[in-house]
Amino acid sequence: MTYKVLHIGAGGFGERWCDTFLPPNVADGTIEVVGLVDIDAQALETGRKHLGLTAERCFTAAAQAFQAVDADFCTIVIPPALHEGIVDLALARGMHILSEKPIADTMEASVRIAEKVMAADRKMGVTMSHRYDQDKSTLRALVGADAIGRVNTVSCRFAGDFRVYDSWGRFRHEMMHPMLIEGAVHHLDIMADLAGAPCTSIYARTWKPEWADYKGDTDAIVLMDFANGARGVYEGSSAQATGLNDWTFEYFRVEGETGTAILDHREIEVFHRYPMRLRQSSRQGKGQQVSLLPGQKWQNTLLIEEFCQWLDGGPPMATSVWDNLQSVALVFSAIESARLGQPVRVQEFLQSYRERASIERQ
Predict the structure, then answer these.
(1) How many Cα atoms within 13 Å fall on the side-chain side of residue 288?
(2) What span, in angstroms and rounded, lies between the C-alpha atoms of 345 and 348?
(3) Which burial class, exposed, middle or buried, applies to 24 when counting CB atoms under 10 A from its CB (0-12, 13-18, 19+)?
(4) Quick one: which of 115, 110, 119 has its CA closest to 81?
């Protein structure tokens, strides 16, 4: 079945959806884009050309688009603070929803959205695109296949040079926690996925160096405990001098009982322990190279397809809105930890917001 889509957001990363993620799914009949929304007329026109839409199917007001367009689901690619309003419009029209991360800009709003979607008996997925990039998917498959035994530690480093104003999207430079909300939302999600268990405790320190042109904190160090006993360490910065591990070129290391797997700049290598040797010394770049998984669709292109398969009656997406509350909880419990200067119990943190939402519904 070909699903009709109303796409919200053609500027910024929304343009990438219009020129890269949506078209392959249009070409193979997975979706048909029947409407496009952006408040910026120039961005709207650019998106229209990428998607080959007529002017009558393009709108600068979301409310008008939802009234005029008959679609099966909408895709949301606008700043997180605006997500809930679009979700409300979609649910009022009985549409399913596929949204960019995070679910919303606060923990309260994220839980509210999940509750609204469940109450409306609609389906909503969140595009945790980096988990579904080709290199991260290969690493996940490797670890999941027990190639290095039981996981002991997961490490991640993101180092980008976005210190100049508007180099990482203007709205991020105005946020209080751009690194955690807009960067670590991907990385902590991948770390929990690689660990193979929910995060139980998180301890974060955040700051902003004086050369970073942001209102909020650009740098973070995060320690994580997982329910299966694994531990995690995260370093993230959007104000580095060289961008050593920029977007899609992040560093991940998974230490297991019988080996180590390293992903760095989209290349994966594995080191195995040799039990008969008393001491072993290894060096990155000298391990066993692992070929990336084959496939024609990755990141959001793949997630659009998986969402449509879910609508077809297939299994729920691993990044459904309800499951994705775990990823959102990682981000906002890390923010709370940085504020308090102490660890936060993630599952208790998430449960407190669920209970609060339940009380508000009564």
Answers:
(1) 11
(2) 6
(3) middle
(4) 110
Distance CA 175, CA 187 (A): 19
Strands (E), 13-104: 31-37, 58-59, 73-76, 96-100
The Cα–Cα gap between 220 and 207 comes to 7
pTM of structure: 0.93
What amino acid occupies position 110? S
Domains defined along the chain, listed by start = 3-122 (3.40.50.720), 131-290 (3.30.360.10)
186: left (phi over 0), alpha (psi -120 to 50) or beta: alpha
Q: How far is CA 85 from CA 79, 170, 180, in A?
A: 11, 21, 23
Q: Which of 280, 244, 249, 242 is nearest to 263 (CA)?
A: 249
DSSP E strand stretches across 128-247: 151-159, 199-207, 219-226, 231-237
The residue type of 165 is Y
What are the pLDDT digits (tens) for 244-268? Answer: 999 999 999 999 999 999 999 999 9
